[in-house]
Design goal:
The chain is α/β, with parallel strands linked by helices and about 800 residues long. It folds into 3 domains: about 10-190, NAD(P)-binding Rossmann-like Domain (Rossmann fold); about 200-435, N-(1-d-carboxylethyl)-l-norvaline Dehydrogenase, domain 2; about 465-780, 2-enoyl-CoA Hydratase, Chain A, domain 1 (Alpha-Beta Complex). β4, α3 (about 105-115) and β5 (about 120-125) form a beta-alpha-beta unit.
Amino acid sequence: MPETTSYAVRKVAVLGAGVMGAAIAAHLANVGIPSYLLDIVPPGDTKDRDIIARTGLEKALKAKPASFYSKRAAKLVTIGNIEDDLEVLADVDWIIEAVVERLDIKHALYGKIEMVLTPGTIISSNTSGLPAHMLVEGRSEDFRRHFLITHFFNPVRYMRLLEIVPNHATDPALVQFMQHFATNVLGKGVVLCKDTPNFIANRIGVYGFMSTFQRVLTEGYRVAEVDAILGPVMGRPKSAVFRTADLSGLDTLVNVSDNLYNNAPEDDQRETFKVPEVIREMLKRGMLGEKSSQGFYKRIKSPDGESTILELDLSTLEYVPQQKVRYPSIGNARNYDDPGRRMLTMLEGDDRASQLARETTADALLYAANHAEEIADSIVAVDDAMRWGFNFDLGSFEVWDLLLQNPTVLEKVLQDRPLPELVQRVQSKGQGTFYTGGAGQHSYFDFTTDTYKPVPRPEGCISLAALKAENKVVRDNGSAALIDLGDGVGCIEFHTKMNSIDEGIIEMMYYAVNEGQKQFRALVIGSEAADFSAGANLLLVLMGARQGEWQMLEKAINGLQQANLLLKYSPIPIVAALAGRALGGGCEIVMHGHHTRAFAESYMGQVEGAMGLIPAGGGCKELLLRYGADLETQLAKKTGGPFTPVRKAFETIAFATVSTSAVEAQELRFLRKTDAITINRDLLFRDAKADAIKLAEARATGNWQPPKPQQLLLPGAGARLVLEQQVEGFLLTGKISEHDAIVGRHLARVLTGGDCSPITPLTEQQVLDLEREAFLSLCGTEKTQERIQSFLMTSKPLRN
């Protein structure tokens, strides 16, 4: 048989419709790849032989957070069962096995697969820890050549890490293809692992959990106390230790730990993986975590409907109310935004929280340094696995560097425990840290050669930080910068807190369009921050309203409106590079660009109503146009009359609807159908720049020009009365508050065109004037000011 040197994935079969299998099928559907989702036929007489796969798909559709970008994608998943439908495997390019973690069951299934397998088909296992060489025992040469482990993390859609583990016979071309496919098509951060038990993330992560758990039992820490100590202040997500265990499932945790204990007999910390009896007892009682609604935490509802989360008392296995956790070190650490500074503050402290932080940090760092060369090809693989697999702010060796640069803290953390041999090497043969250089010249200590090598990045990846380090900044005013991306494309980068819109950002937008077009043929708007923009600077809005600075506020709102119009009618193409949240004014900026390249996990919405306001940067106007309120569409009678766009826009804005993905943003019309989606955040600027160049080249050949000014045909006072009646109905049924109703009436007036005639078109500027008038009027109300103040203080909307 000739060697297979080229691979493609057009159709997939997922075997096993449990939480992971169904979620993998859902994510394949998210990126447009059809799949079969097969599971066993349940024992006994059943009319629905596909019931297990059907149930798995239904759970994926109901999952929170959502497994699908849009539920419409579920049509790409075809359910079936392994007994009746096994022959479909002959027609797919990739078979993913996601059945229970038992070697005998997997081996039996592989035997069935081989009976129908088309030679050259990719086969992978989603095992969380069984070594690849054990999985392929007894299999044919072709099976082994095209087999590897693809270990997804839960929840599949959101967790970036994908560990790939080849066996000794895997085709190197297949490994290379899967790396590229997973990065570019599935949007994953790929880490290649050596064929050792539990690979990288679970090997280090489960060791960290088990060593922490033993210290918690010995030293008497409470569950919620541990999560407060080892959460965000130590560079970890809010789920920290025990909540993370609940999310992944205690049964999974025990399986992984048992697997390590049994299959890594040479591990010097093997006894740490021995599961404590208290966890075994929790399993016996069905306390599995989120999947059984009780684990280390349990949510209960009181008779009045209020939810309370109880924590487990590890000494009695009874649920008790959580106690407030207050330590000076935690309070001090929360004063810093930088995760490294927060961590150092915790580790330097002298209280009980700092003690646990130091002990668990030492355990985890020593284990990672002592085992890195056994389980990974580089320290970068270890750090990527920990950041992508557990949402840590810093990887293991990044934390080592933090401590190596702060020797007093390092000494306090290690407490006379010897430095690992790898750390000693980086001090004697390296430059004293595992990473060197800044943005653009970032290198890592390669333990195979004891030299420094460039940190690998995805092909074509554009780093704004690296460009700034290379002096590619054309202009910077403190709130925003104009950066040269090369090839005649500039980038407007926001860098205020949460990229909130202020005078400096608006000024930069004016400069980039008016002056930047002399240097650039196209512009991209975006940043490497977590969010595109959280909207207007609410503190300035509140201060202006309370001080009666109405001229200042009107000037600021008009400034954003005119800047957005400038983007819309710019003579050179404007491409928004959208990632994270684009809320309020941020959403409006995106909607005024000529094209958007959106990261799949983008969340867009006009949320001003929650603040007691309405969109006033052109958001009402643009959503009306996208729903078909423009004169041309209305004259062609394509929308069912002028009230239809108004009603749709009202429903979207009044309820502060936020998309849960870029696909849903298209369904809500925040994005156009012609806007493009990138699945991997690292490649967003590469793709946005390519889109900008394409538009610029089209402009050069006369095939692109900015849009012409539009007119809107809005239904006027009669339609406003209909919307106001809806508002009154919501008020009477208690669905909204009195102030919500006031906001709704203002919104209804704007969307229906104020006092316009239903047969007289309005200009965009006339609608903008209505937006601005309503916004200022609402700013003057006490309850809107209360909402803004409450949100600034608590980050939670106030319903008053």
